[in-house]
């Protein structure tokens, strides 16, 4: 009898599944920020390309799995590599993420997928796409926004900065310019490349530091088929989680950053909506330096759902005095809120890795790369491998207890050769004359 009453009491507390789903969707709607964005560009060479896509879905057909992608591709020596990467990189990244993952697992898988997506599957496709003798390349700054989580992958010298509520400006990318990056210079020379300036008649050296052969100023890029293996497409990846206060991303090509510091760019557009902000950043860069390069800027605002200060326009019927009083009060309120939020920590760093060593980037997971068919897959290009064909990313290295030659991930022979070349274990066949 008592057990029966207990069962009846338990049933009275049950909530229908439909009600639970409804509650979860309402909660998710409250928690999901508003994403607003704008862009501006001035072209000199016609080699800058960009992407703004806000309707991507982790699960096809599921609107609650929506995320956004913003990217800049700054081409050089032509625009073919930039165009191809813009049209294909997202598909390669998504193809490197296992299916059936929940949102948190999906976010954790993103950094590794961004490394795999930049590698040989994309590069080999690009080789087929380029015309014979074509040697164009491109930088990439690739930003994925999923609610409050921002994941950035970058190769080259385009940049993404975060201006969090409270005024703190942080850089979410690393510039791969040989002139400025000592670690990359050391890696390139250790891998068989030569770093130096352009030498003219009389032995006079001019211009920025470049990598030879090829004469590229960057140590990482996509494309550039005429340079050695030491110019790698392995991205620096950083993932952060914003507080519920949100923040602003400024993503731009080097036409902006050669003219403005990160702080100057953030300050120049402070208080403006995203579209006007992007125009203002470009305008300020041109005012400072002139149009010496393609200049492209994307501004992305991640706005709390209850933030009426950023989302509500002024009432139409207001005189100028009332408008000024309204905005002064709003600004005072926003400043007070920002000071409170800045005291509790605005940004949580979830992941950061910039190594050019694939063994470090792909991890020590012994089950990594196993396909649903039971075969193994190359962790980079995802080609199926028979058990006897896979080569561990750790093979041939000095093994530790956590890094053994029979542990995955595994690579195909082509990707293994590319990895060895990147890490200086074999020398480029291209010689400097």
Can you characterise this structure?
The N and C termini lie far apart (95 Å). Strands 2, 3, 4, 5, 6, 11, 12 and 15 form an eight-stranded antiparallel beta sheet that branches. Strands 1-14-13-7-8 form a five-stranded antiparallel beta sheet. The chain has 433 residues and is α+β, with helices and mostly antiparallel strands. The protein is built from 13 helices and 19 strands. It has three domains: 31-176 and 218-305, Phosphatase 2c, domain 1 (4-Layer Sandwich), CATH 3.60.40; 178-215, no CATH class; 372-432, no CATH class.
The share of residues in extended strands comes to 15-25%
CATH fold name of the largest domain, please?
Phosphatase 2c, domain 1
Please tell me how large the radius of gyration is.
25 Å
The domain tally reads 3
Structural class: alpha+beta
Fraction of residues in helix: 25-40%
User: How many individual helices?
Assistant: 13
Q: Using the alpha-carbon principal axes, give the shape.
A: globular
Short note summarizing the structure:
It catalyses: O-phospho-L-threonyl-[protein] + H2O = L-threonyl-[protein] + phosphate; O-phospho-L-seryl-[protein] + H2O = L-seryl-[protein] + phosphate. The chain has about 425 residues and is α+β, with helices and mostly antiparallel strands. It is built from 13 helices and 19 strands.
List the SSEs and their pairings.
Blueprint: H1 2-13, H2 17-31, E1 34-42, E2 48-57, E3 66-76, H3 80-95, H4 103-117, H5 120-129, E4 137-138, E5 140-146, E6 149-155, E7 159-164, E8 169-171, H6 182-190, E9 194-199, E10 205-212, E11 222-223, E12 236-242, E13 247-252, H7 254-257, H8 262-268, H9 274-289, E14 295-303, H10 308-311, H11 320-342, E15 347-353, H12 358-362, E16 376-377, E17 384-385, E18 391-392, E19 410-411, H13 413-422
Antiparallel strand pairs: 1-14, 2-3, 3-4, 3-5, 4-11, 5-6, 6-12, 7-8, 7-13, 9-10, 12-15, 13-14, 16-17, 18-19
Helix pairs in contact: 3-4, 3-5
């Amino acid at each position: 009898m008592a057990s029966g009453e207990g069962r009846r009491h338990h049933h009275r507390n049950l909530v229908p599944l439909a009600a639970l789903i409804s509650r979860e969707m309402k909660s998710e709607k409250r928690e999901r920020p508003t994403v607003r964005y704008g862009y501006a560009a001035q072209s000199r060479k016609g080699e800058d390309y960009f992407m703004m896509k806000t309707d991507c879905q982790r699960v096809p057909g599921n609107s609650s799995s929506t995320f956004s992608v913003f990217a800049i591709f700054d081409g050089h020596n032509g625009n073919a590599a930039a165009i191809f990467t813009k049209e294909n990189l997202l598909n390669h990244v998504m193809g490197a993420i296992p299916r059936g993952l929940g949102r948190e697992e999906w976010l954790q898988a993103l950094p590794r997928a961004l490394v795999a997506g930049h590698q040989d599957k994309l590069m080999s496709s690009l080789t087929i796409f380029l015309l014979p003798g074509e040697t164009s390349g491109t930088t990439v700054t690739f930003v994925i926004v999923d609610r409050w989580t921002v994941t950035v992958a970058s190769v080259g010298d385009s940049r993404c900065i975060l201006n969090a509520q409270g005024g703190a400006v942080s850089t979410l990318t690393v510039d791969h310019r040989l002139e400025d990056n000592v670690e990359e210079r050391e890696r390139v020379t250790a891998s068989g490349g030569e770093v130096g300036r352009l030498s003219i008649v009389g032995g006079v050296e001019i211009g920025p530091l470049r990598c030879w052969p090829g004469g590229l100023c960057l140590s990482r890029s996509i494309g550039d088929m005429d340079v050695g293996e030491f110019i790698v497409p392995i991205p620096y990846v950083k993932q952060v989680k914003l507080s519920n206060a949100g923040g602003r991303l400024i993503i731009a090509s080097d036409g902006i950053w050669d003219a403005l510091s990160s702080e100057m760019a953030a300050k120049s557009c402070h208080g403006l909506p995203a579209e006007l902000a992007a125009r203002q950043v470009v305008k300020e860069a041109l005012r400072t330096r002139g149009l010496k390069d393609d200049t492209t800027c994307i501004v992305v605002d991640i706005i709390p759902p209850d933030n009426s200060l950023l989302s509500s326009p002024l009432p139409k019927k207001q005189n100028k005095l009332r408008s000024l009083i309204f905005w002064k009060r709003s600004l005072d309120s926003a400043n007070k809120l920002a000071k409170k939020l800045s005291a509790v920590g605005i940004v949580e760093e979830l992941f950061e890795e910039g190594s050019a060593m694939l063994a470090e980037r792909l991890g020590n997971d012994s089950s990594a790369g196993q396909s649903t068919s039971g075969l193994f897959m190359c962790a980079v290009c995802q080609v199926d491998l028979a058990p006897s064909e896979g080569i561990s990313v750790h093979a041939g290295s000095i093994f530790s207890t956590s890094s053994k030659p029979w542990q995955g991930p595994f690579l195909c022979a082509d990707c293994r050769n590319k990895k060895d070349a990147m890490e200086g274990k074999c020398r480029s066949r291209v010689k400097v004359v």
